[in-house]
Specification:
This protein has 394 residues and is α+β, with helices and mostly antiparallel strands. The protein is built from 16 helices and 13 strands. Helix content is 48%, strand content 11%. The strands form 4 sheets. Strands 1-2-3-9-6-4 form a 6-stranded mixed beta sheet, with helices on both faces. A 3-stranded antiparallel beta sheet has the order 5-13-10. A two-stranded antiparallel ribbon has the order 7-8. A hairpin with a 2-residue loop joins strand 7 and strand 8. The radius of gyration is 21 Å and the shape is globular. Bound molecules: protoporphyrin IX containing FE. Protoporphyrin IX containing FE binds next to helix 13 and helix 16.
């Protein structure tokens, strides 16, 4: 295994990580990424296999678990009940109960309101250049996830603040200040949800929180701590990545030009998949090895970590011809942006629906939309999203 060096906070890498991924892939599927101190899979085959290989998983192996620092307790308490940090049998149980409530019917029911929301947001666009990331790409997912869970829409700015402070924990630029801010946010978020879940217990509504409370399988239900952890996970994961999928997609379309047929009923599915493949919002997830395992010539020992570079796999020329080209006319084939295997994104159908509605409405209403300033990515690796998207209607 070769050793590669690349700071994840280097400004050139933050703006365009793809040349580094290409250089890594050209040398093999798997390398040691020195800056993260772990093996990293860059090739499509390695990422695809590792996502499905049950000898690897997200939950920390028992002998490596340490009590976290006291100042992080509220943050760690939320993570402790998150399906994203669990493996079977805990993961199977949590995911099954959540999927009882998070049904395709519940998602489809959001569609008319979602379309109306997109139009209302566009009605409020100013004439002068404005930040489309804030005015549209953020509002669509955050208001939609509030509606799905049944949290008042007026809470959206508060949810964004808690969520931003919590997900900063997964960024390479994390500091001690980040930790304190995340712990405070997790505490306030959990306090709010505890009260809110209590209200829904005594006053059930037609929303996801009520359905999560009622979700039952063979007499088993979610505990209050699990409900709080699950709602935090759904509310945070439910907008952070979708916001930047929309932002990155609109940026690419405005920079490279777009065709009306991409946004038509026969083309929109492909456009959404191509946006997610070409410039995804989440680039890297990690796994622990649970036993000695040989993968692409490297032997992992139990407890070793490996990074899966979803964004590098999406552009592997051995999996997809001309993978560096943005081509929404191509069949949607290679897309690791929602992961794969046991932890495959629970929200993928919702994220796809939001994008399939928000993009055609935006470009139909604002066909003359143009960039008003060069967009920049924020220094938040492994997140890959814009700081803002200044646009104007000409
Ligand atoms: C375009 C938007 C989105 C992207 C790119 C995305 C990406 C991902 C990825 C890559 C994973 C797997 C991580 C891993 O394997 O380590 C994941 C898991 C998850 N996502 Fe998403 N996501 C998006 C939207 C959403 C939405 C809208 C929701 C909820 C409403 C959501 C909820 C979740 C949950 C609960 C998990 C954990 C699943 C599990 O551990 O079994 N995501 N997402």
């Amino acid at each position: 295994m070769k050793t590669l060096t690349q700071s994840p906070t280097d400004p050139a890498f933050v703006q365009d990580p793809y040349p580094f991924y290409a250089a890594a892939r050209a040398q093999g599927q798997l390398h040691h990424w020195q800056d993260f101190g772990m093996a990293a899979a860059f090739g499509h085959s390695a990422v695809h296999m590792l996502l499905r290989d049950r000898r690897f998983g997200r939950e920390v192996p028992e002998e490596l678990r340490k009590p976290g620092p006291a100042h992080l307790a509220p943050f760690l308490a939320a993570e402790a009940h998150s399906m994203l940090e669990a493996e079977p049998p805990r993961h199977t149980r949590l995911r099954r109960l959540v999927l009882r409530a998070f049904t395709s019917r519940a998602i489809a029911a959001l569609e008319p309101g979602l379309r109306e929301l997109c139009h209302q947001l566009i009605d409020a666009f100013p004439q002068q250049p404005f930040d489309l990331l804030d005015a549209y790409c953020t509002q669509v997912p955050v208001i939609t996830i509030c509606r799905l869970l049944g949290v008042p829409e007026a809470m959206a700015p508060q949810l964004l603040d808690w969520s931003h402070r919590m997900v900063a924990m997964y960024q390479a630029a994390r500091t001690e200040e980040t930790e304190h801010a995340a712990a405070q946010a997790a505490q306030a978020f959990a306090d709010f949800l505890r009260g809110y879940i209590d209200e829904r217990r005594s006053d059930p509504r037609d929303d996801l929180i009520t359905r999560l409370i009622a979700a039952e399988e063979e007499g088993d239900t979610l505990s209050t701590d699990e409900l709080v952890g699950t709602c935090i996970l759904l509310l945070n994961a439910g907008h952070e990545a979708t916001v930047h999928s929309l932002g990155n997609g609109v940026k690419t379309m405005l920079q490279q030009g777009w065709q009306p047929e991409w946004l038509a009923p026969g083309g929109i599915d492909r456009l959404v998949e191509e946006i997610l493949r070409y410039d995804p919002p989440l680039h890297m997830f990690t796994r622990y090895a649970y036993e000695e395992a040989e993968v692409f010539g490297h032997t992992f020992q139990r407890g070793d970590k490996v990074a899966l570079l979803l964004a590098a796999a999406n552009r592997d020329p051995s999996a997809l011809e001309d993978a560096d080209r943005f081509d929404p006319a191509r069949p949607a084939k290679v897309n690791k942006s929602f992961g794969g295997g046991l932890h495959f994104c629970v929200g993928a159908p919702l994220a796809r629906l939001e994008m399939q509605i928000a993009l055609p409405v935006l470009f139909a209403r604002c066909p003359d939309l143009a960039l008003a300033a060069a967009p920049e990515y924020s220094n938040t690796y492994h997140f890959h999203g814009l700081t803002r998207l200044l646009a104007a209607r000409n």
